[in-house]
Amino acid sequence: MLIRPERPDDVDAIDRLTIAAFEPQWFSDGSEAPILRALRASGELTISLVAEDDGDVIGHVAFSPVTIDGSHDGWFGLGPISVRLDRQRQGVGRALVAEGLRRLRDRGARGCALIGDPDIYGRMGFTGDGSLTHGELDPSAVQHVAFSGPSPRGEVHFAPAFDDAGH
Ligand SMILES: CC(C)(COP(=O)(O)OP(=O)(O)OC[C@H]1O[C@@H](n2cnc3c(N)ncnc32)[C@H](O)[C@@H]1OP(=O)(O)O)[C@@H](O)C(=O)NCCC(=O)NCCS
Question: Which Gene Ontology molecular function entries are recorded, alphabetically (predicted)?
Fold first, then answer.
């Protein structure tokens, strides 16, 4: 398996993968693929990695800038992330996250936030300790990993593409 940045000819495969991976999820409103397209269009898809195996795209993860209490300050958001249904629970998601975080650190980022299941991301180094909030969401789902300095406290806001494409 190879983890590499997306190429223009991956876009349709990423779309299909994202739709198929989120379709069975109760929490999904089907906005994930449109969000990716909107991030790409607005230039806010800071890092977009695919997991390729035997020429097929079997996983994908996106990172984009976030603000915490209105300030960007070197923080990024992870998501959407998708692994092909028949390849889940085999370490693909973990590998995508690890490579994405490595690349964020290399860019001088200060940290990464996400909204997701603590059972999954807690195993990948994230903590939902209540320091970040997102509306009315259970704070344990609003997780982060700090690369440098203290963890900020406050309301995390994802790129406008999440609002524009998310409804
Ligand atoms: C979430 C997702 C990206 C995880 O990718 P993955 O390749 O299946 O995850 P990994 O195999 O790398 O697992 C990483 C860790 O999370 C755990 N994990 C993965 N899926 C889990 C689940 N559904 N419930 C509980 N733990 C889970 C694994 O056990 C593993 O921990 P361990 O190594 O300590 O056992 C993938 O399942 C997916 O595409 N889901 C559908 C779309 C989605 O929900 N995206 C995320 C929205 S927040």
Answer: acyltransferase activity, transferring groups other than amino-acyl groups
94 lines ligand 1 (CB under 6 A): yes
Q: How many whole angstroms separate alpha carbon 43 and alpha carbon 29?
A: 23
Determine the structural domain holding residue 99 and report its residue range.
2-165
| Cβ 112 under 6 angstroms from ligand 1 | no
Residue ranges with strand state E in the chain? 2-5, 47-53, 56-65, 67-68, 75-83, 111-115, 132-133, 142-146, 154-157
Residue 6 belongs to domain with CATH number: 3.40.630.30
Ligand 1 atom nearest residue 116's Cα: 48
CA-closest residue to ligand 1 atom 17: 120
pTM for the full model?
0.97
13-71 pLDDT tens trace: 999 999 999 999 999 999 999 999 999 999 999 999 999 999 999 999 999 999 999 99
